[in-house]
## 1
Amino acid sequence: MTPFSKLGKSTIAAWAAALLLASLPFGGAHGQAALTKVTFGTDWLAEAEHGGFYQALAAGIYKKHGLDVTIRQGGPNLNILQNVAAGVVDFQMTQEPFFLFSNVKENIPVEALGAFFQKSARVLMTHPGQGNDTLEQLKGKPVLISASARNGFWLWLKGKYGYTDDQIRPYNFNSAPFLADKKAAQQGLLTSEPYSVEKEGGFKPHVLLLADFGYQDYNNLVIAQSKLVRERPQVVQAFIDASIEGWYSYLYGDPKPGNELILKENKDMTPDLIASAIALTKQYGLADSGDTLTLGIGAMTEAKWQAIFDSAASTGLFPANLEWKKAFTTAFVNKKHGIDLKK
């Protein structure tokens, strides 16, 4: 080995620079080094419900945190678990905590990193004046739901209200069958399907927000393989922090950058639907309410997770001794990050 004293000044300087760079977080000094490539999968086509993530991309917030993020849109045939398990995406959005409890039960190492909606926007819609105004009244009647819903809120409806699988009618994200059958109910999101049905059908559907009936839930959960969480915590923290900032910017700043990107990515989206969804997200406190008011957007607490699990376990969906804490980690949220951006 060459004695340190015999090295040239240029070599010493190069070593010093290399050591300094190695000591910095990924992305290098002030983001000057190559950005870390990350792929994030949404659960559906680009829409306002994903607004904070698109805002973070369009406004350069991910880049500021050393990330080169690609958002991969979901759709009706999305297999979330396969996307994550096969490494198609680094991070994935999902709507259902029950899905994560099922993963724990099957020893699948995937966990939630942050909840960007604090309560469920899930609804069932019915035709007015048909005597289907409560969840109890829908027992035994046809309900249009997606394939993924069978392992989500449908399990809760079965456990609490006695719904049965023979009620299920396939929902392929086209409301035409619902509009044609006045006796049917259809799943949806508060911020989306009721608006579309009113536009297409010319009437206001009766909307049953599941959260109003005790459905304990987190939505817009960002999940990842446990291996990524364990081996690349800096990347995880950067993605969560940037996403949090994106949501504050989208809800309380100028959402134009995110909206323009959403409209570019999803040709079927309209400015009116985006505006309606943003207004409802704020009105119902979907993204910013409860724990987020003191802990910051994306917050998750063990107490809320326990309430969600207890609700599921009480209806027999999961064994009471399930190691449900493996479904999530709070290591990357609850730090009040970005809360000062709220205006």
## 2
Amino acid sequence: MNAGSKATFVSIIIPNRNGAGTIGRCLEAALASRYDAFEVIVVDDCSTDESVAVVQRYPCRLVRLAYHGGAARARNVGAAHAGGEILFFTDADCLMQPDALALACRALAAAGPRAVVGGTYTWLAHDRSFFSDFQSIFVREAETKRAPAADYLATHALAIYAETFRRSGGLPEGPLPILEDVAFSHQLKRADYHLVLDPTVAVRHIFNFTLRRSLANAFTKARYWTMYSLANRDWLADSGTASHGLKANVAAWFMCLLLALAGLATGDAHWFGLLLAVQTGNLGFNRRLLAACATAKGARFALAATIYYACVYPLAVGAGVLAGLARYPLWEARHGVRA
């Protein structure tokens, strides 16, 4: 761990829940930061694997929660134990790039005292499978397309002044088990803080995605995004990964399904012509993502990603949306409107 007299002291805060498979590499990357003054705090959220033993091998501070409270609570507890003027949040399955901390602090200083700075994923994932690389590209393109402006900043790479964090009340420990960083970002925006997305502040994610895990992730994220969006009355917002492009992609998939069924039922080829037109328009609307796939990994990957994104991925997202719609009325009655 480094200590310097000139650089602003930073606390890196990492929540962990059964992350034994990744937390060691996460800590190695964090401790290898080229920044001059920082500490690393790991908050273990009642792991039942070997996480604690792994963390104890590294020169960092370990805080163990007495009961399982979720990632938001773990981050809030980490902030309460932090000595840094700046807090930098990342995840136990993310590998900070060596210059991420320095770049985040520089961007925060340049943006002013009422700013919060967020980073994103590297173009390619750590594990480099097709589904992991697709996810990394998908998230990065969605999060950075309007940089430096941002609708939300994700806690896989977020730098905030400790005083700002404490005044804000910290991350909401609400009823949704994910999207606490989105809720926190919107909370900051309502308090007139400026959200700055800096794509140079990057972490490399360890996804280990298979087809099943990719689709399960899409389903889960879509389910909770739907509930959050309904609660906050921003269903149609173009917000990061809940983008207009993804929403158009899902709508196009269901339209194409209906057109295909109509064509098969009637034997009229015009329905298939309409299907082709809808899908062509959809791919045109999502051309930035598909171009990013080609830039990151070449034409063959982009072709495979196009087929996956347009033909398979929308099924999981659409199912997640329907599940969120079905679950929302009971959830709203139990927890209230605001997520």
## 3
Amino acid sequence: MLTQIVNARILTPQGWLKGGSVLVRDNKILEVTNCDLAVVGAELIDAKGCYIVPGGVEIHVHGGGGRDFMEGTEDAFRTAVAAHMQHGTTSIFPTLSSSTIPMIRAAAATTERLMAEPDSPVLGLHLEGHYFNMKMAGGQIPENIKDPDPEEYIPLLEETDCIRRWDAAPELPGAIQFGRYVSSKGVLVAVGHTQAEYEDIQAAHEAGYTHATHFYNAMPGFHKRRGYKYEGTVESIYLIDDMTVEVVADGIHVPPTILNLVYRIKGIERTALITDALACAASDSKVAFDPRVIIEDGVCKLADRSALAGSIATMDRLIRTMVQKAEVPLADAVRMASETPARIMGVLDRKGTLEKGKDADILALDGDLNVRAVWAMGKVVEGTNKLF
């Protein structure tokens, strides 16, 4: 099937094309051009002046549509993935909070099944924990948290190849060995839920930790102990130029001013936008998977209000927040939601930009940055065809 999207403002790696078109054959981008001339035999879709940008690549998301990936079932996965796709996510790495080994195995089996399907948006599993600093547990389930255990993580990585990312606190006993082993398997290793200071981050980086989980959240900044001042995890990560970061760009987890600061210091190519969304995102549900969690002020919190526990954000909200509140140019915000996470996760060869030969993952946004249509692998996502 041949489809041509015309009358659009198209974001390409070279910048904006005004009045151009995107030609799609089946699940691939055939051409991106500044010409609006209709192609014989193509289904013509008038974008009505909308922004046509790459679909979002979500690298940290716990659930949506009322379901959580920790459930481990195919039904839960499909429901959560579909809910986020309606808001502009076209590639997704389902994320588990700190879990038991049986829970991880169940989720891995489901991930493998979905990844094996043609044109699947599921690209791999992300484990957020369970090797974290208990003092920085935040919304994690505390009884699941422990120090890195090679008798757990080595067999897991030997028996499945769907795990694409694993987060840990590098100051824990055994965390450096964990980083070396996991990164040697081609898995992204990220710093998270940590009290690490500069020497810890330096050692972690040398051991294969290259990314920071929900930057600024569940990690200390500049602080003082007994009159002496110390750099926190935040400043340490800023100082290591090639470490990438992700931010929960809902405007609540990180204030818009700090979102702008991250953008200025780390830059577009080292900053990814994430939702860190829980089951109640993209849903009428007001209940999170974890009974300790409440929804208040547009965000998920522990019921005692001691910590944020995740967001109810979706991909389109991230882009709007960065543009309308953090005052970041639209092209840069979109790149941080698509191109950069695709690069971080090693899928930029087929995802993250609108280019000839890449997967036809496309998002149409109107002037207010609301979703007007989503194409995943060339197919319109159900419920998003507001252009036609």
## 4
Amino acid sequence: MVTVIIFLIVLAILIFVHELGHFLFAKMFGIRVDAFKIGFGPKIFAWTPKDKHGKKGETEYGLNLIPFGGYVKIFGENPDAESTLGVDHKRSMVHKKKWQQIIVLAGGVLFNAIFAWILYSGLFFFGGNVPIDAFAGYSQYFSNPHIIVVDSNKDSPAEKAGIGIGDVESHI
């Protein structure tokens, strides 16, 4: 059950980052965004914040019940009479330059790639310690498990103990 909850949280984060890419690029190019929602199906809650003058904003933010997706409703993404000829037609996606439309549509994938890069960079920068026994329950899936020393610091406890680069420990 915990694994399912963790999966849903990770999925929600990835969906949020993806939709945020579409949202931010649309806003950057002056395109009206009518909705930013995470999830599908019945609405859990939604709100439309007010601007600094107390006027209700244009974007409704919300969370829906089924966490397997999300969406950003971009004005003019599916052209109709209002988005092509209406009062606010200049803020419609259909009236933006093609390169801007492409960036808005590709923004989600771009943000997911940037997010992955940030996570991997953080992992490599800060490092991560994984105890060997963390894989104990999975030993039947490994053949010939072993540890190979690939680097060692000068005057480190490992070097003083006689452990050197290339040493192999196979008694895991």
